[in-house]
Amino acid sequence: MNGALAVPVCRGCGRPLTTTLVDLGTTPISNAFIEPEDVEAVERWYPLHAYVCDACLLVQIAAYEPPEAIFNAEYAYFSSIADTWVEHARVYARRFAAERRLSATSRVVELASNDGYLLREFKALGVGVLGVEPAANVAAQAEQVGVPTRVAFFGEGEARSMVASGLRADLLVANNVLAHVPDLHDFVGGIALVLAADGLATIEFPHVLRTIVDVQFDQIYHEHFSYFSLLALEPVFAAHGLRVRDVEELPTHGGSLRLHVVHATAGGGDGTGLAAVRAAERAAGLHELGTYRAFAGRVAQRKRAFVRRLLDAADAGKKIAGYGAPAKGNTLLVTCGIRNDLVAFTVDRSERKQGRLLPGSRIPISAPARLREEKPDVIVILPWNLRAEIVEQLADCRAWGARFMVAMPDVEVF
User: Fold this and answer.
1) Which residues, including other chains, have CB under 8 Å from residue 364's CB and lie 6 or more apart?
2) I need a labelling partner for 44 at 20 to 30 A (CA). Which of 143, 168, 222, 347 fits?
3) Residue 39 burial by CB count (10 A; 0-12/13-18/19+): exposed, middle or buried?
4) For the segment 174-193, what is each residue's pLDDT rounded down to a tens digit?
5) Is the separation of the CB atoms in 56 and 230 below 8 Å?
6) Is 263 helix (H, G, I), strand (E, B) or coil?
7) Which residues contact 175 (CB under 8 A, 6 or more apart)?
8) What is the pTM of this model?
9) CB-based contact 150:131 (threshold 8 Å)
10) Which helix (H) or strand (E) holds 403?
11) How many domains does the chain have?
12) Could you give the CA distance from residue 130 to residue 72 in angstroms, rounded to a whole number?
């Protein structure tokens, strides 16, 4: 897809994109938080229009800002803030270090390694590690915990540089980064170059099947260029001499896939998960354009239901606050027209977000202590994928009768 063309082009197969999945209007970049001194400045808003390719069925949006403008030195997302992700990393490291028989002479390479939250688990097990992370401020945090990190955007060029310096990945990890890549073939081509001949790449991403079935439209934002099914991805890997050997279904992000990818020439048969996910996608109708065309109407229903519950609470005199400042929450708030006259404030554990305002909605972000000070009646959990963790953290809020609310996978007050 070449920027904001009149007829955008599929980044998977190069065909023109003409079929809409959903048009969410215009929004700011979801992680473009506003500093208090810039509250009068004009924000830049961009179309948030998701298409599905008629040919290869890859779901995607146009790239209005290059990755360099999004994942810059002020990038605000740090993985280690969420206890759920830290535990996810710990379990992963222990499992794959054992299964792959990794040692100090092995090399685990993580693409978009963030603050080193996963690689430090491998390092603690005595395994050799290397991170590749484009956001310099986040990479600096990884270096501070002893995780060597290359500050770079990964693709074929960076992969060639790594190989030239003698680096190969026995295990390559790419968690929740594939959606952030505007040049999909450059990224996958880089994986093929840097992956050792007998190496394994595991690639995790939110499954577009769950996005569609559960109407998770807040997963759509400008930092996510593409939304993947196994059906759409297998041809992309095949084009670079790679094959998907197995697939795991994960609960993360409301339903994700973990692909096990190897060189096409690697030995070993297919895992049972591959056939299972192919069958599930077919059963859900992901091979039919009609499934994608029906999504927009279901999004409109979900948005109305969410706004209606908020208005009912406000009309009843309830004070409403938010929890979290995730990118997905900004899509939800902005596309539903929510402002701080309805949701007074939100809170976030990340000190880098506190004191700033959410893009678009201009809702102020505070430290979690503000919830205990102002005692809102309704707390909207914006990172709903971390619902269980957050409810546990806020258990004391029930003392003043607070209720929680989520918009996904259904609008619910509990």
Assistant:
1) 340, 345, 346, 356, 357, 358
2) 347
3) exposed
4) 999 999 999 999 999 999 99
5) no
6) strand
7) 110, 112, 118, 202, 203, 204
8) 0.92
9) yes
10) strand 403-406
11) 1
12) 20
Q: Could you tell me where the beta strands, DSSP code E, fall in 316-385? A: 320-323, 346-347, 365-366, 378-381
CATH code for position 384: 3.40.50.720
Its domain, for residue 347, covers 308-413
Sheet holding 242-250, edge to edge: 149-150, 129-132, 108-111, 169-175, 195-206, 256-263, 242-250
C-alpha of 83 from chain center:
16
In one-letter notation, the amino acid at residue 29 is: I
pLDDT tens string 265-300: 998 899 999 999 999 999 999 999 999 999 999 999
Question: CA 372, 376, 380, 385: dihedral to nearest 10 degrees?
Answer: 20
Torsion angles phi and psi, residue 37, rounded to 5: -70, -10
Residues 70/71/72/77 CA torsion (nearest 10 deg): 110
- The pairing of beta strand 378-381 with beta strand 320-323: parallel
Residue owning tokens 């390719």:
53
Phi/psi of residue 413, each to 5°? -115, 130
Residue 124 belongs to a domain: no
Residue 392 lies in a domain: yes
Task: Classify residue 292 as exposed, middle or buried by CB count within 10 Å of its CB (0-12, 13-18, 19+).
Answer: buried
Rounded Cα gap, residues 361 and 337, in angstroms: 8
Q: Domain for residue 341, yes or no?
A: yes
Among 383, 407, 394, 252, which Cα is nearest to 329's? 383
Please answer whether residues 224 and 29 qualify as being in contact, where contact means their C-beta atoms are separated by less than 8 angstroms.
no
* Cβ 407 vs Cβ 383: under 8 Å: no
79 belongs to a structural domain? no
